Amino acid sequence: xxxxxxxxxxxxxxxxxxxxxxxxxxxxxxxxxxxxxxxxxxxxxxxxxxxxxxxxxxxxxxxxxxxxxxxxxxxxxxxxxxxxxxxxxxxxxxxxxxxxxxxxxxxxxxxxxxxxxxxxxxxxxxxxxxxxxxxxxxxxxxxxxx
Length: 146
What we know:
Elements: H1 2-61, H2 69-103, H3 111-117, H4 120-127
Helix pairs in contact: 1-2
């Protein structure tokens, strides 16, 4: 009788662990889907803002005419697209880190998702309820011999 109880308790623990793993996987996939949409939105908005800034710069500050505006925009669109992608990703990454840390979603996300956004010591700090550790500043004399 006691052995049957122990066996059913073990089965219940295994069942709970599987349910928890499925829940974490589902939460992680949902989070990544919305994070992907957020990243696309942020990147498009940053690129549009940069295009508007370049257009204002070209027409208001430089006072370009219709003859020479084509070559100007060709060169600057390459810079705007590359810079917009990089800047959009940087904003997205910081925003996601802030959202995950402030809302407590780190408890609901899988380890691979967490390691994509946070360093190992940051994950440990989040799980223990401590604030995120500050990044150490690089010293000026890093490469000098003593």
